[in-house]
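Why run this: before we spend reagent on co-expression, it is cheaper to look at a predicted model of the complex and decide which construct boundaries make sense. The entries below are exactly what would go into the expression plan.
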Amino acid sequence: MITALVNDVFIPITAGGGIRSMEDAEILFNSGADKILLNSALYENPDLVKQLVQKYGSQSIVASIDYKLTDGKRAVFINDGSRKIDTDLEEYILNIEQLHIGEIYLNSIDKDGTGFGYDFEEIQRIAKKISKPLIMAGGAGNENHLIEGLKIPGVSAVATANLFNFIGDGLPNARKKILESGENIARWDH
Amino acid sequence: MKIVIVDYKMGNLKSIASALIHLGATNVIVSDNYELLSSADKLILPGVGAFGKAMAEIKEKKLDLILKELVLEKHKPILGICLGMQLLGLSSDEGGLNEGLGFVKGTVTSFDSTKMKVPHVGFNQVKTKQELKLYKNIPDNADFYFTHSYKMQSSENINQCECDYNGNFIASFEVNNIAGVQFHPELSQHNGLKLLNNFMTEF
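The model came back. Tokens follow.
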């Protein structure tokens, strides 16, 4: 799958899901992945994360963090959202940064798939405290969500699967409107 | 056209090879073998990872001597990409001061992580100059994909084009047969493919 993509897609490809060993990562990199996405391993096996950073470099490792409102607090979940971690979200992120990962992909489980907009309240609070490039995810349903997200200081990028997968040419249209709004995203359609 | 990607066991070489093949290169080889490197029409020095470790690998395989002969004496065109570009410079302070291949007068230092997010990652605009061979038919201020924590600077004229990330750094240079790009053309959509094509046809 990844190899087929790499043969005619000339943008960076990040692959993830179930990476639990050096061998798992090696298979993805050898298939042509430019980066890998780690989630549960960040908590369950920080030594593996350190080894991966050492071998492939910080820029190859994206830390994916899922959180959801639980008893009024934003709690981190791993194992596809099935296991709750007892560390506060902000503290968890600061700990993860110590592993020298290259980017953080922060996803609100509550907002994910809704199309109602990102968790702006929390991201606005937390983004500036994060020293690594931050990609916000979960909830984008239209280009205004993307534009509003990109305006938050400390947010490096916004992610969407909804606009990409479910709405015809939702993504190219959104890109066009973001450019018109004056946000600085790549122009690559010359 | 025979393009040899210099193999020193670091970096994702598959996407570079795919891009070259997509552009019509029929003979793309990944190798550290002297005969093969000598027979290449063009060389590509790729690289992802740490500068010091890369130079150690290069010296271990005597690639420093081979490249000096092929590039400086025989004027074979070479394109350094990302870490490969930095290795063409004089030195880097990544993990202590390490000497590079020294083909161009550029020095590499780290971004200041107290002032900005490091690594510098994503698409960013390069102050491209269409009169340069690398940027033929590429629009001004074209976007390319970067991912790096160290940057090259130079006080000499090496036909550099700069990019701004809380200050200017060298996004590319070209001096006769020697070119380097800090960004990843193989991951930069149409602009990147055009640049690789320019390297194949203009150098």
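The radius of gyration of chain A is 17 Å. Chain A touches chain B at residues 3, 6-8, 10-12, 29-34, 56-60, 102-103, 131-134, 156-157, 184-190 (CB under 8 Å). Bring this page to Monday's planning discussion.
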